[in-house]
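Narrative summary of target 7.
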Amino acid sequence: MSSLKRLFGAPKKAVTQETAAEALQTAEEQLNKKQIFLEKKINEEIAKAKKFGLKNKRAALECLRKKALYEKQLELNDGALMKLQAQRNALDSALMNKNILDTMKTVNSAMRGIHKDMDVDKVHDLMDDVNEQQDIANEIAAAISMPTGSDLVDDDELLRELEELAEEDVAEKLLDVHNVDELPSIPVGEPTRSKPKASKKAEEASELANLEMWSA
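Modeled conformation, tokenized:
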């Protein structure tokens, strides 16, 4: 048995979403570090090539060759990083779809449990019975609120009451017309003005004049 395991290898454990996410994160961190390293080396080789210039063409060209190699590695590194990011997006989408499906299964199971003891025909029968009982309740309410024989009013009695009201209305109108005929007449001509009373001093002066005339 052990020889078979060595030959075919031990059975692999199922990879969980957490394990896959951790593996992706580790790989992305490594590629990001490598990207920083390669960019640094490229800048260093460019600086060396500028320093050597035409004075030392061989050294300058060697620096440019190294720069080209670093740029090629950087290009491959960027491609690998993009693939990992695409896998991360795919993993997130798969996880979201799984959560949605699990939710739908849970809801479906709950609905199945709710509808387990429910039957469409029984529901229709129940609704028919509810409507029938409602109709009976309405009929009972109408019967209770219907006036009895003692509560009914004779039409002849109502007609006499209406005639009395009409007679009272006519009498009130005649009384109003009679009151209008007895209104006071409107005065004709200009109103007379009352003479103003003499002042107290004028009266005293008149009395003194009369006394002097009698004493003379």
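Residues 21 and 88 are 7 Å apart (CA to CA).
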